[in-house]
Design a protein that fits this description.
heterodimer; A: about 70 residues; mainly alpha; B: about 575 residues; alpha+beta; FAD/NAD(P)-binding domain; Glutaredoxin; 8-stranded mixed sheet; globular
């Protein structure tokens, strides 16, 4: 997982992310986020990197439950 | 041999009860007889095991509490038999019957509303003589297995023999049996518990199955009708005709369709499986113009079970007695048959004194990870089909909406990942460590522990056949020489002839296509095959150039792939594949 800057234009990304949510009800914002996560995840592709990102995002809220098996 | 018994839509055979030798004499025997192998349960798993033993010349005793195949009144169980199962049935000699009766298919489609959001054709990847899938009511496969077992004539099949007591000791188990002619006891050097989800042996041994149940409810309706529908597996994640819940549509033999409806989790299961209610549901799906007949209707819910140990003392647990999973992907029946396929050759070698008893522990080492994988895979599907929170529903909607636009997202739509043979990558029998010139992957893409598909080949006698034909007379392993003849091959073949007669050596690559094969130089135990369609090369992922020695186990999983091996390396790989210490 990359933790140093990798954006080609970080401020533009952040602005577009906010703009994409403008005028949406909370439920539609959640739908947009879900679509965006899946699209971005496919760009990353590598399962270990994705797992590291999920763990990092989850970390303020305690560990995720262990998978079955 | 059988009198028809009328059930819901099918006539099943009835097998006669014959008093076992323990009860047939004038006096009931006091000392229990001891048998090498006793199989409890004549379901898919127990019958596959019995047939496998029969084909290896081992006479197993099979105890079953019923006198027919299937479960009375419950015609609906497994319907999809995947390629590895079909290949096993080819080796056991009943594949042609299965193919003639069943429905061959390879295309699956997943729909949301009226749109196809995911589609596959499993035949594209196949090098096997067998198709990816054949659909068939489970009892038909059991029926064919009984017929084949009877034909081989080397199995002690005991109908109406109900196991009522079990105890095991260091070197045998004692089983108490109830029959119409009275009760008796027998002893078994080894027991294979194939008795299904309610196992008396397992409960007697007080083994924890770690049961888990899902809240989702389904209702199967097996329906007979003729309609010009494609012979494909169709699954709806959201079916407009089922209140936007999931539906399965699958054809099996006798024009019977398996329609499986996802219900509201809070539904009254008795109400939803009422025949008039089920008929109304089917009517909404097939439309007003199609006449149909309900064959069987029954509700079910998700559940899983998994034993900690698949071998306990003298007892092995196979199929549902060891592991239970949700039906998605047809993993229950297919994995049960692969359990039998994994254990029978090992037990046969141990009984013949050709392998140490420790080989039997690798049944657990190889098949429990397979069961864990199956349970994990079916849970992933069930979670996609039944989102457990509003957020999970949001992600599912996102996946489906993206799938309508982008190819990548179609793969996230999960209505079941169909059963494939599990690769025993971490098995001690396939461990590539500890030898010189061990490059397990050189020239071969197939991972060690993975299964080689049943490719069509030209047999040593010049006739067309399949890879499984090389295993038909139960060799301990098959060694395949691929590529140009190597300097070490002649010595290795001499080694096999002299000190490893049960290692069948076969050579590919020096024989002209379609030519009559005789082993080069007429060497005994070594013969030439041809690969006229290139499908053996495809099955192994062979690059077609590298000289490599491939060692296949009796279950056709890859034990080792050794480029230009020494005799010592072959000897080590052959010993390892049979669990012998090096």
């Amino acid at each position: 997982m990359k933790t140093n800057l990798n954006f080609s234009d970080h401020d533009a990304f952040y602005e577009q992310l906010l703009a994409a949510h403008e005028g949406l009800a909370e439920a539609d914002s959640a739908r947009l986020n879900a679509r965006l996560i899946l699209l971005l995840a496919n760009q990353v592709g590598d399962q270990q990197v994705l797992a590291d990102c999920i763990a990092a995002a989850r970390s303020p809220f305690g560990d995720a439950p262990a998978g079955p098996g | 041999m059988s009198t028809p018994l009328q059930t819901a839509g099918y006539e099943l055979p009835v097998y006669p009860f014959v008093a076992p030798p323990e009860l047939a004499g004038e006096r009931i025997e006091k000392a229990a007889r001891r048998y090498p192998v006793v199989i409890i349960g004549a379901g898919l798993c127990g019958l596959a095991a019995a047939c496998d033993f029969a084909s290896r010349g081992i006479r197993a005793v099979v105890l079953d509490d019923d006198d027919t195949i299937g479960v009375r009144g419950a015609s609906s169980r497994g319907i999809v038999y995947a390629q590895k199962t079909l290949e096993i049935m080819d080796r056991l000699g009943l594949y042609d019957k299965l193919r003639a009766k069943g429905v061959t298919w390879s295309v699956g489609k997943t729909l949301a509303g009226n749109d196809v959001v995911y589609e596959f054709d499993a035949s594209a990847q196949s090098a096997s003589r067998q198709p990816p899938f054949i659909n068939l009511q489970q009892f038909y496969l059991e029926w064919f297995l009984v017929d084949r077992i009877t034909e081989i004539g080397n199995t002690d099949l005991r109908w109406k023999n109900k196991v009522i007591g079990f105890e095991q000791f260091d070197d045998y188990a004692r089983i108490e049996v109830e029959t119409p002619a009275g009760n008796y006891a027998l002893e078994a050097a080894w027991v294979m518990d194939c008795s299904g989800v309610n196992s008396l042996v397992r409960d007697t041994l007080k083994l924890d199955t770690h049961p888990a149940r899902g809240i989702d409810r389904w209702c199967i309706s097996d329906v007979r009708f003729k309609a010009p529908l494609p012979i494909e597996r169709w699954t709806w994640v959201e079916a407009p005709f089922n209140d936007n819940r999931a539906v399965w549509q699958h054809l099996m033999a006798d024009d019977v369709w398996r329609l499986d409806f996802q219900m509201d989790p809070g539904c009254d299961t008795e109400y939803v499986s009422r025949l008039d209610v089920a008929a109304e549901r089917v009517r909404r799906q097939v439309g007003d113009d199609v006449e149909f007949e309900l064959v069987w209707v029954g509700p079910y819910s998700y559940r899983s079970q998994l034993l900690d140990e698949f071998r306990v003392g003298r007892t092995f647990f196979l199929g549902d007695s060891a592991h239970v999973m949700s039906p998605f992907g047809a993993r229950g029946g297919n994995s049960a048959i692969q359990d039998a396929d994994n254990l029978c050759w090992k037990l046969a070698l141990v009984l013949a004194g050709e392998a140490p008893a420790s080989l039997l522990d690798t049944y657990h080492a190889e098949r429990r990870p397979a069961a864990q994988f199956n349970i994990m895979t079916t849970r992933r599907t069930s979670r996609f089909l039944s989102p457990e929170s509003p957020q999970e529903k949001i992600f599912r909607d996102a996946a489906i909406s993206l799938a309508r636009e982008y190819p990548f997202a179609r793969h996230l739509v999960n209505t079941g990942r169909l059963s494939t043979a599990f690769a025993y990558t971490d098995s001690p029998l396939c461990d590539g460590s500890g030898g010189e010139s061990h490059d397990e992957t050189a020239g071969i893409a197939l991972a060690r522990g993975a299964v080689a598909q049943n490719a069509p080949i030209t047999l040593p006698d010049g006739k067309p056949g399949v890879l499984a034909d090389l295993f038909r007379d139960a060799p301990a392993c098959v060694g395949l020489w691929l590529g140009p003849q190597q300097t070490s091959a002649a010595d290795a073949i001499r080694y096999a002839n002299q000190s490893a007669p049960r290692l069948r050596m076969v050579e590919l690559g020096t024989v002209a296509r379609g030519s009559k094969g005789q082993g080069p130089g007429g060497r005994r135990g070594h013969s030439a095959i041809a690969d006229p369609e290139g499908r053996l090369a495809k099955a192994l992922g062979w690059d077609g150039r590298t000289s490599v020695f491939v060692l296949l186990r009796p279950d056709m999983h890859l034990a080792a792939a050794l480029p230009d091996p020494t005799i010592a390396a072959i000897r080590r790989a052959y010993a390892r594949a049979r669990g012998q210490s090096l």
